[in-house]
Amino acid sequence: MLVKSPVREGGFSRGAEPPILVMDKIEEIVTDGTAMTQKIAFPRMAILVGSFLAGGILYWFSLSPMGLLLPIVAVAHRCDRIVLFTVFGVLVLALASTVTVALAGSDEMRPFYVSWATFFAVALGCVVVVGSNSPAKSFPITGIEPDIGGRHPPALSAEFLRLVHPDDRDLASHASSRAFWSGFPQVVRYRRLEPDGRYTWTEFRAEPGYPIADDTPAKISAQDLPWSITNAVGETAEAARTALVLETIFGTGWAMDTTGRFTYATPNAQTTIGQTLEEMNKQLTDLDFLDGGDLGWKHIFHPDEYERVAASLRHSLRAGEHWNNEYRLRRVSTGEFGWHRVAMRPTRDRDGRITGWYGMSIDITVYKQTEAALRAREQELSQLVNMVPVHIMRLSGSGKPTFLSKATLDYFALDDQYAEHSEATLETMQSAVHPDDALRVMSALRQGLERGDRIAVRYRVRGADGIFRWMDSRAEPIRDASGTIVEWYAVSLDVNDQVLAQEELRLAHEDLAKATQAANLAELSASIAHEVAQPLAALLSSSEACQQWLSQDPPNVDRAHQALQRIIRSGNAATAIVGRIRALFAQSADAREPSDISRIVGEARDLLSEELLRRGIILKIEIDRAIPALRLDRVQIQQAIINLMRNGIEAIGPNSDVRTLRIRIKRVGDAIQTAISDTGPGVESPSKIFEPFYTTKGHGMGMGLAICRSIITSHGGRLWVENNEPHGAVFVFTLPVLEEATEPA
Q1: Is it the case that residue 290 has pLDDT exceeding 80?
Q2: Closest CA relative to residue 341, chosen from 370, 309, 318
Q3: Mean pLDDT across 210-228
Q4: Are 20 and 201 in contact (CB under 8 A)?
Q5: What is the pLDDT of residues 237-274, one digit of tens each?
Q6: pLDDT, tens digit, 9 for 90 and up, residues 551-577
Q7: In this model, does residue 657 exceed pLDDT 70?
Q8: CATH topology of domain 216-369
Q9: Is-above-0.70 flag for pTM?
Q10: SS3 for 105?
Q11: Which residues pair with 735 in a beta bridge?
Q12: Residue 382 contacts by C-beta under 8 Å, 6 or more apart in sequence?
């Protein structure tokens, strides 16, 4: 219940409206503090609802207003004094109104008004009688001048405390103070004196008020309150007064003299730590506290905290500096230690001399437990991140590093202060990128940051050991509710072993292909030698025989003629063998079938994808719609496309600014035109490029483009080369469209 009362120095004014305390009889009746019987009261709301229902039913059936007496009596019996006064006022007004109407009204309606006037009169009598004996009452806290000399705080009036059992007065006083301090209702049970001399267990609910009432001077002047103030307040009166104000506002406060002894502490604090002021101020050694001695309050501190706290407090007491600290205190109820955050300030006289200290503390145990749990969770996640063999990074929206995993720090030999020097850290990481990859990496980063797109790039980066290793990096933007990029999360996976293994595998494939080619050539050579050797041997033998027959005197012409016939037959046999070998390698239309050129290009792309990725080249394929099928040899055309693509890949050097290979397929008249363009240096001699054994490469044989032209020509097409703008070369070939080739393979 809100309390609106003027405040004067020294306490509440007599004319102030006091806070309200509501009591209910709840459990047992005792005499002289001894329980005699137990009587459980019905809940207030249930009684009120039942009374209203019963009264309404009675009025409905009797059509008499007397049936409504039951809910009115229930309200008077169960509600507090404010509601009772409200009901009383309403009944008085209703009675006066009905009497006036009855006197001024017609004779026919007079009995009706008289019956209601009678009802209101009887109801008033019931309210007066029942309300005076209601078990739920309200008492003012400060209805009279506070009784400073008793064993209770002056917040409660003497009228109220006179009805409280002596053993329960401190409990009731403390509950009312706590309600005033905290702003929350306080509920306790105490024994209340009834008119017949018995004590009844009563529920005490203290509703808080909000104005601050400070009766500090009265408390300070009454130094016989052993539960809160020492017998010698002395110069710390101002500190104690301020501590009481803090207590009124925050529920906690204490005062201390300049030697480290407490002169005031709340009873709740003393109950919590299990020490009185005398016990806290007891000197444990011959030395004073400021000289290195100890006082009784040492026993409530955690052993690991006391020396640090005592040294800090001595320094503040000597220097007059503000004291702020956190430490653990033992709770007497559980024996456990709880964390407290304290603040203490000095009070000074007119000359600036310190006269005392006042302070307050806040229980931060839950905060510390939460902080410890979060720290443990953070450490767990940090250990998990550090266990992963991946470089994990968090970047700001502009790309500056704000978090680097331990693996990243170790790789670049960075210290833990990288976030404070983000510019230098970023420069260190960028300078470690391989020169051949730097332009491509920076371009990808710049485009990603500008567009907010996902970043994916593979590159070489130098570690702290000076060795370059391949990294596969990915970065994703994190956006807020409005879509603005606030952070980037990036990971870099060390794929150096994978890249080297792939390179070794590629070289092994090339060596295997060469070995296979050599083996096939050797086998072919052996086969040719075996097939041709016999007719050549026969030819040689017949030639020698012919020579012998002709060298005789006279020459044997018939035999020589027969030898010549054998020579002719052997030559024809050798010619036939050579013809079969030529037919074996001749292009034939027997293997041609309707095929989709776009599918062949896709297969060639898949075969070269690893090399494109390794060299950092972007492949772009553009295919017009409705490209018809072509009748061709898939293997030969695919080999020609692969040769042309590989030629373009090798033309794009590591220092090329633009690393793009483009394939464009479109229909031109009755032919399908395929153009493969690169961004390399271009072709110096377009007229010689397709000649056999002509090459501009140090390791080439000069047969690739010649074979490609031979394949395209055998399919009825044409292959030529053009210069690409602004740089590079374009190899273009056409293949004719045949009407019978309608179904692609």
Answers
A1: yes
A2: 309
A3: 41
A4: no
A5: 788 878 777 777 777 788 999 999 988 887 777 777 88
A6: 888 888 888 888 788 788 767 767 766
A7: yes
A8: Beta-Lactamase (3.30.450)
A9: no
A10: coil
A11: 672
A12: none
Q: How far apart are CA 472 and CA 454, in angstroms?
A: 14
Separation of alpha carbons 644 and 677, rounded Å? 9
Provide CATH 1.10.287 ranges for the chain: 500-586
Q: Which residues of 382-403 are buried (b: 16+ CB within 10 A; e: fewer)?
A: eeeeeeeeebbbebebeeebee
For all residues of the chain together, what is the average pLDDT? 75
Buried b (16+ CB within 10 A) or exposed e, 71-82: bbbbbbbbbbee
Check if CATH label 1.10.287 holds for domain 500-586: yes
**pLDDT for position 178:** 65
pLDDT digits (tens, 9 = 90+) for 511-563: 877 776 666 566 556 556 655 655 676 677 778 878 888 888 888 888 888 87
Identity at 473, one-letter amino acid code? S
Q: List, in sequence order, every residue forming a beta bridge with 205; answer none if it has no partner.
A: 22, 187
Given a contact cutoff of 8 angstroms between Cβ atoms, the answer to whether 439 and 657 are in contact is: yes
> From CA 322, how far away is CA 316, in angstroms rounded?
6
Nearest CA to 610 out of 668, 649, 648 is that of 649
- CATH 3.40.50 for domain 7-23+139-206, yes or no, is no
Residue 282's alpha-carbon distances to 288, 291, 298, in angstroms, are 11, 15, 10
Copy the structure tokens of residue 494: 């060390």
Which residues have C-beta within 8 Å of that of residue 128, sequence separation ≥ 6? 88
Determine contact, residues 405/391, Cβ cutoff 8 Å. yes
Phi/psi for 170 (5° steps) reads -65, -40
Write out the residue limits of the CATH 3.30.450.20 domain(s) in the chain: 216-369, 389-487
Side chain identity at residue 193, one-letter code = L
Which of helix, strand or coil describes residue 528? Answer: helix
* pLDDT at residue number 169: 82
Residues comprising the chain, all counted: 745
Please state, in angstroms and rounded to a whole number, the distance separating the CA atoms of residues 225 and 51. 48
d(CA 244, CA 266) in angstroms, rounded, equals 9
> Which of 230, 233, 281 is closest to 260 using CA atoms?
281
Is pLDDT larger for residue 184 or for residue 130? 130
